[in-house]
């Protein structure tokens, strides 16, 4: 539902959100609709995606599909344009993790994570940009990176590598598409309170305390706090920004010491 009594920043814009059925993607889809956008949610989780689109109403649509498949990227653009008339925004957010030591990591798991976390961003970015170029009036692409594009976690090899690639993809896409009026930026969250984070790094109280000891603000981020950054980067308020990664991380990247965490 569009926010009443407030200026909306994405009024009548059309957006595609990949990995939009849960977590940060869900929060972004909700916030985009609140800000006046019409949104096509793309996700492999058909049940959650259809439920979210139904909840968001006529301004949202769901497409079930594997984001690593080029035909799904092309279909998403086609459906968005067919249903809503154009395409203004892409948020490439789909992501997975796989924990394993470097010496034990299987090639198939490395490839699987990079396919979702990096290759799909290229596929959707290319498909969306081609449509934006054809429309002739620019657009905005936002890629979901991570503080782990810069910081490494020893047992998250493919995730760390994929997010480093996202930062470089952001830069090269921004340079390639600037002449067409298409801005490309990325968001690099710290640890956000999603189901993915709980499974990956919050498996015990000790793990939680260790994580918070590295976070000066001493709390996890909330999905909607990332969604607000996505709205900013997708909208006209960021009209002179391209090729940048913004880090809403509770101060983690600036930290060179640990902080005490209360029991």
Automatic annotation (TrEMBL):
PROSITE patterns: ADH_SHORT. InterPro entries: NAD(P)-bd_dom_sf (IPR036291), Sc_DH/Rdtase_CS (IPR020904), SDR_fam (IPR002347). Pfam families: adh_short_C2 (PF13561). Gene3D superfamilies: NAD(P)-binding Rossmann-like Domain. GO terms for molecular function: oxidoreductase activity. The keyword Oxidoreductase applies. It comes from the Bacteria. Signal peptide: none annotated. Keywords: Oxidoreductase. NCBIfam families: PRK07231.1. Belongs to the short-chain dehydrogenases/reductases (SDR) family. This is NAD(P)-dependent dehydrogenase (Short-subunit alcohol dehydrogenase family).
